[in-house]
Amino acid sequence: MEGDPQILILGAGFVGSGVRAALGHHPVAVIDIPDHPELARRDDDARKLILGFVERGATAVINTCGRLRGTPDEMHDANVALPTWLVSVLAGSGVRFVHLGSAAEYGDTGSADPIPESAPARPQGPYGETKWAGTAAVLDARAAGLDAVVGRGFNLVSAHLAPVSPLYQFLRDVTVAADGDTVELWWPATLRDHILLDDLAGAVASLAQVPAVPDVVNLCSGTGVRFDEIVRAMAAASTSTWRSGRSTDPGSPRWSATRPA
Predict the structure, then answer these.
(1) Which range of residues forms the domain containing residue 247?
(2) Which CATH number goes with the domain that contains 204?
(3) pLDDT tens digits, 162-209
């Protein structure tokens, strides 16, 4: 990398690494919070660390940090307290702040129709609720003058699936099944919009560089796919023959696929 970084990425995990790759040869710095205790404390040293990049010419800060699971305190710290602190540090700096939100902020819309950015936030559960609280802090800062945007990521897909993804479990079940085994799937009609990690990372990188941004951008494919369709596709792509059907219990919301012996 030549020269001072123009974009600062917070987080070197699944998404942060993808965004770094999407930015190619663009001058970038990546900060992983575990490597910087001052960021966990969010003290004066942490403020100087962030603003130091701004003073050296950084034009955008991308926050890819967050937690899917954890204690209430851990979830609040990563998903609410961190972005709230970041927007306070960047207030008046003139840089673009890109925050990675989540489709979980919308909650269950009760419809298979695509969700527009104008849909109300009705999160359910600790993850969605804390992600929405973090987004709300960013949107408040935007209303106060910060150049900020929230990219709401939908369900990620990658060649290397994260263990927390239901697709990871689906693929594992199909892959390790032996002759005569049955893979059962609860709530097969569950509909989810999935986006490739490379596509999401590229969109986040673009949000850091385009001249103007709206307040919220959905990062998704725009098409919902049922869970049973996903498992059928996985089974079809395997080297084995599968026979599918509903659960033997007619009152059970399950679907099954059996690998004949």
Answers:
(1) 166-189+226-258
(2) 3.40.50.720
(3) 787 888 888 888 888 777 777 778 788 888 999 999 999 999 999 999
